[in-house]
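FORM 7B: Structural annotation worksheet

SECTION A. Query
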Amino acid sequence: MIELKNIQAVSIDPKLITIRETCERARKDMGDLDELALSMMTVGQITPILITRDNELIAGERRLRACQQNDIPILAIYRDQVDDVTMKEIELEENVKRKDMTWQERIKLTKEITDLKQSKYGEKGAGRGQTGWSLQDTANLMGMSKDGAAKDIQLAKAVENIPELAGAKTADDARKLLKKLEEDFIIQ
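SECTION B. Predicted structure
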């Protein structure tokens, strides 16, 4: 157990954690919990959940549900008792303050994940039973199509070579600018 100024992080059986019925949760769509559980088993639980001293969930429902479904102990931080209003406030803050990645961050991350995983596991060859990491594996991890992952990686490489592309408002705008630059280069 770690204790930092009245904060305790503990590994706990997720089945011991309850969700207060008087406090309706904001998030309804939990997404792919098996994928989240696999990630937690592979690299560990990156962020603990927040619970009361009575083991009631305050924040981190997706992580909790993934662990409950897959019998994975969960890392939790205790917080003193909270009333329904404070509990809801904390849950909403956690979800509202989350920021989506910019297109520039997303394409760079897609390329970095592919490069990292292929350097660690090798590039997956064609055919059944091949081991390694493929573009499809990256697409699955990122929740996008294989074509989308390929386009992101291609654009990330272009931005590395032509940093001005990163100034475009959207990824589509950057792709259009790249196409125009290519056409202008071919004409010259």
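SECTION C. Observations
The first strand starts at residue 2 and ends at 4. Helices lie at 33-43, 61-70, 84-96, 103-121, 135-142, 146-161, 171-187.

SECTION D. Sign-off
Analyst initials: ____
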